[in-house]
Each structure stands twice: as structure tokens, then as C-alpha cells.
């Protein structure tokens, strides 16, 4: 299945590292004009060095005013990938309000804000579009110490459905991808590089291997593309059969 995005303008948030970075590169390879938004300037510099066609947008999505200015500056967007996300692990009884707010602000509020700006433009132009939000399998199958993160991804799933419902009449499709553990900076920082920590997840995956970044990127490309023209408001698990066990 070949997908092409020639003539389309794409915005990927959290494109400095991990899944977002590889999504930005894949979109360029498929012909899109890509805007890569992320927090750390050095990540954007190295991305542009690798792919000079990518347009970097430095922004901390935790700052609503900076977010508004940055997203408005990129102009019309046809394809939006809300990928930026953070995780803070704390046992439920020790969850701090500060950590909860930080996770919810990045993983949910920023998606709301970025999508509103982008989707208003899509509605005004009447050209439609496609939005993919990076959720997680933890919205379906929770993990200990993931209270804030699970709450954020559960909220993101439901918000995405409302977006699909309200934006569908404007030819804007909204879907989520919901992967289980993928080894990236995010998951390595919380110990998943250690087979002892990843083992219980792996044991529940009938295909016998962890999800890789490319597996997620391919699903994002599919949902962004016209191949998914009638897929709207769905949550696509990427988990090798984890939920069957
Ligand atoms: P990484 O931590 O590897 O990369 C996340 C990227 O998002 C970084 O470039 C980071 O920039 C950026 N980012 C985070 N917060 C902000 C912010 N406030 N403003 C701007 N940019 C920001 O994460 P992954 O690639 O692993 O995860 C990507 C998405 O996929 C997330 O939404 C995550 O929840 C989801 N996901 C990941 C899974 C996994 O196992 N890895 C599984 C399921 C879902 P910086 O480093 O500069 O802060």
C-alpha cells in the first residue's frame, strides 16, 4: 500500500524525538510539506540537518500563549499529528497536583488548543483534513503508577471521538493510535530498556515482540491518508494482540 501526501501541509508535534521525529521524516518521504514542532531546539536542528525540507517550530506546548503564536505562524495545515506527550510515574496515593496538571496540560489541553487552531482553518477553507492523536493502550488496559498518564490518554480518546463527531461534517477525520510499549527516550527513562520491566508486557503479546516505532508511524500514515477515508472516531490499538490475552 503506497500512500502519498504531495501538495499537503503537515504539522507534527513532539517531532524532536521518538515517534514524532520518525513520523515527520516519513511524511516528508511521502511528499508532504512538514512542520516539526518541538520543545528542544537541538533536536529540531539535527532533524533539519537530516531533512533540510522540514520546517522547524520551537515551542513548549505547556505554554498556551507560545502555543497559539507558534501554531498560528505555520499557516494552513491539512494533516495534523498530535504526538507530543509526557509521562510522570507516581503511585496513586502520591500523585501530586503539579504532576497531574503537567501531564494533562501536555497530553490533553495542548491537543485541544493545537487542534482548535488547525481545524478552524480547515473549516474556513472547506478543504477537510485528517488528524491523528497519539493515545496509548493504557487507556484500555491500565498500569500501576500511571494514574496521570492513563487519565490523560483516556481523556484524549474521548475528546478525539467528540472531535470526530463535530468535525466530520467538515470532512475532517479524527482518529487515535493506541500503542503498547515502544522503546523510545520516554520509555527508556522509566525503565523499559530493562528486560525485567518490559518482560511482563512482552509476555502478553502473542506475536512475541515489542511494538517498534515504524509500526506506529505506518498506522499514523494510514489514518492520515485517503486509504482510511471512512475511518473516523476510532482508536487503533497497536499491540500485537496484547488485548486478547
Ligand atoms: P519521546 O519522549 O521519545 O518524544 C516526545 C517528544 O515530544 C519529544 O521531542 C519532546 O520534546 C516532545 N514534547 C514533550 N512535551 C512537549 C511540550 N510541552 N512541548 C513541545 N514538545 C514536547 O516520546 P515517544 O516518542 O515515546 O511518545 C510520543 C507519543 O506517543 C506520546 O504522546 C506518548 O504518550 C505516545 N505513546 C508512546 C508510547 C511508548 O511506549 N513510547 C506508547 C504509547 C503511546 P522534549 O524532549 O524536548 O521535551
From TrEMBL:
InterPro entries, sorted: L-xylulose/Carbonyl_redctase, NAD(P)-bd_dom_sf, Sc_DH/Rdtase_CS, SDR_fam
Is-annotated flag, keyword Oxidoreductase? yes
Its transmembrane ranges are none
User: What terms describe the molecular function in GO for this protein?
Assistant: oxidoreductase activity, acting on the CH-OH group of donors, NAD or NADP as acceptor
Keywords, A to Z, come to: NADP, Oxidoreductase
- Keyword Acetylation (UniProt): no
Pfam families in the cross-refs: adh_short_C2 (PF13561)
Quaternary structure, per UniProt, is: Homotetramer.
Similarity comment: Belongs to the short-chain dehydrogenases/reductases (SDR) family.
What name does this protein carry? L-xylulose reductase-like isoform X3
Q: Which organism is it from?
A: Branchiostoma floridae (Florida lancelet)
From the UniProt record, report the name of the gene that encodes this protein.
Answer: LOC118429146
